[in-house]
Design goal:
Helix content: 25-40%
Largest sheet: 6 strands, mixed
Strand content: 5-15%
Order of helices and strands: EHHEHEHHHEHEEH
Bound molecules: 2-phosphoglyceric acid
CATH class: Alpha Beta
Number of strands: 6
CATH architecture: 3-Layer(aba) Sandwich
Distance between the termini: 57 Å
Strand order of the largest sheet: 3-2-4-1-5-6
Number of helices: 8
Length: 260
Amino acid sequence: MSQTVHKLIILRHGESQWNHENKFCGWIDINLSEKGKAEALNAGKLIFENGLKPDILYTSKLSRSIETGLIILNRINRIWIDHIKSWKLNERHYGTYQGCDKFEIFKSLGQDKEKFQYIRRNYFGCPPLIPQDEIDISIDDRYDSIDNKSQLPRGESLEMVMKRLIPYFNEEILIKHLLKRNQTVLIVTHGSIVRSLIKYLNNINNDQISNINVPTGVPLIFELDENLKLVKDYYYLDNELAKKGIEKVANEGLKKQEKL
Ligand SMILES: O=C(O)[C@@H](CO)OP(=O)(O)O
């Protein structure tokens, strides 16, 4: 008897204007760059050419993720599917680093690569938090419907991201839609959320996750069985493109940005 295989398509949004300018973004709402829009269109093309037909779209509450999702749906003629936006899929909150040039932060850490990458990529690495008594400009009225505002972050490590993300991902996405409704789910989200989902679905340990980087705009496919176990390794729809993007992201901030 052949088993049912559930498909989960996950990707990081296309390049944002601040990715382009080498600035930490986090919860600040920055739009896609022109390159980011082209990447989103290409992601749609890859999804279409691979015969994938998402039944539902999940994005964060941030424009770069929503915009990417809508460009994809338009490209694959499925703009009509349900679309759920949740702050649980928002990028890692980058605390006081949000809006700062990555190379300037690297310099402020004495150009110590280990320290810099610890904050960017270690499971427990956390940027300095925005103090409680300071207004966090990244929290605006899109979060008004949330009852308990104190659960909103002011800076997060990957560990903190996973605490807010995984229960939502399991209950709302995996169990309710992928399993019970047998839907193909498309999640368009952010680098740290994709890293968290790779870690969770593949049981990657806290040390190994430091080495995983995620390119902008390249869809990843996870195939899961009835017990929500992977039936094979996850894969990118364009490996060559993913490789180039991964290398770029891994080295961000270590050099001064060339004039744009
Ligand atoms: O700026 C950010 O929010 C993230 C992703 O764009 O940066 P980094 O890859 O350095 O964690």
